[in-house]
Write a structure and sequence with these properties.
The chain has about 350 residues and is mostly helical. Helices cover about 55% and strands about 0% of the residues. The chain has a two-stranded antiparallel ribbon with strand order 1-2. Bound molecules: fe (ii) ion (2 copies). Its main location: mitochondrion.
Amino acid sequence: MSSLIASPRTAIGTAPSAYHLLLNRHAAIYGIQRTFAGIGKRYNSSTPGDNSKEFFPPPKAPHIKQVKTAWVHPVYTDEQMRAVAVGHRDAKNWSDRVAFGTVRVLRWGMDRVSGYRHPAPGQEHLSRFQMTEKKWLTRFIFLESVAGVPGMVGGMLRHLRSLRGLKRDNGWIETLLEEAYNERMHLLTFLKLAKPGLFMRLLVLGAQGVFFNGFFLSYLISPRTCHRFVGYLEEEAVLTYTRAIQDLEAGKLPEWEKTEAPEIAVQYWKMPEENRTIKDLLLYVRADEAKHREVNHTFGNLNQAKDPNPYAAEYKDPAQPHPEKGLTHVRTKGWERDEVI
Ligand SMILES: [Fe+2]
Ligand SMILES: [Fe+2]
């Protein structure tokens, strides 16, 4: 491994210092080629390095090369990700209205916490509406720390129901747990770009305490309303990332134009070498949120007790468009029950 990270300095016969050896050892564990100038470079990349800071470096484990995931992310094409759009499913009954109303209230609260104010047309230039990289990251970290809860609660409760009811679940649990895992990967990725302060950590802690228990009780009462709620929450997430992408494209976030996506993101999304900017990263995250929006609106259309999971199903006519993990068929409002069951 050490030969892979030999520096120009060692090549001309100067012995590296203990500090540089330590740096190189850390880089070797993390799969980054690092020169003595401190500029990281991936083994499989010709683009200059990972300039994100390591707020949670990997634990020291001399015998372990890397930790692999059980849930391999589907590959998205650039074209598919750019086609993702903001959208809304109209509330059709009281359950939908309760779900949508709750999301509106939460959105208002989160906008206040993360310092986000969306300008009315013509007010975009006012300083109180300007978002910086730091403000966006605060918002993302808070959003993602909450977003990882519903899938885990839904998956856990369906798992327990299957155990105590001595009956099968028909594929919902895996999709819900995978969603929770995907949201946690979003959080870990953004934590590579910003280190939250004590206030933010306390907010995350408090929000989880309230949200986990609230969602847990709500899921026991009406899982259908809960999936609709997550569908609406994901509509907001797609909107948030779309606005961040627009800010980046408008040149309002110059720091991110120079920053490369963290290694954890490159590996998880299998980001191609030419598409590893922060804008690419936001396109991947937004596409994931669009998928959660579709999955949860679809789940909200189903019979919770009896219907199989359309995302884990093998269809009698595979040529017909049907729900699947990738972005081949994205339905902003989800699939109706009679289309998929
Ligand atoms: Fe997310
Ligand atoms: Fe999401």
